Amino acid sequence: MNWKALDFEQITARELYLILRARSAVFVVEQSRVHLDPDGRDETSVHVFGAEDIARSMPVVAYARLHADAGAVAEVVVDKILTSPLRRCDGTAHALIERVIAAAGERWPGRSVRLAAPVGLRGFYEAFGFRKNEGPFDEHGVRTIGMVRKSRLSTCLSAYVERTYTMDAGCIDVVEEI
Known about the structure:
The protein has about 180 residues and is an alpha+beta fold. The protein has helices at about 15-30, 90-105, 120-125, 150-165, and strands spanning about 1-5, 45-50, 60-70, 75-85, 110-120, 130-140, 140-150.
């Protein structure tokens, strides 16, 4: 399998067609979500996908889209997460999420990663360090929870800020070597 993490401008016309076809096959046909899939975020996103033989009619077997959340200072949103029905339960989803986390860390170091997951996949995402932070709620007829994976840098910074501002004097008077 060939894995890629590309900005919109780097995607070839054929790759874009195959990505949109895979998204439609899973979200519109399989999951019966009637919605406009190209929603205006693709052009400002990083597209992580795994493809087999590009000459096949459905070669994109795993896909996710990442974009910085305009409303949150330190979060990256992952959405449109899919694996082909033919590649479920064979490790492809694990490989996808590992690549998503790596791409988010490279592009947006120090930011948390947020996604919405079906309730039944909570354990899967927790294995990658994601933790439930909202829900459950209904999203297109699916019981869903919001999950966040804090980056190591943001976790350390939060702990430092919390220690710093919860002390009586409002600051710390020691220097720690890291």
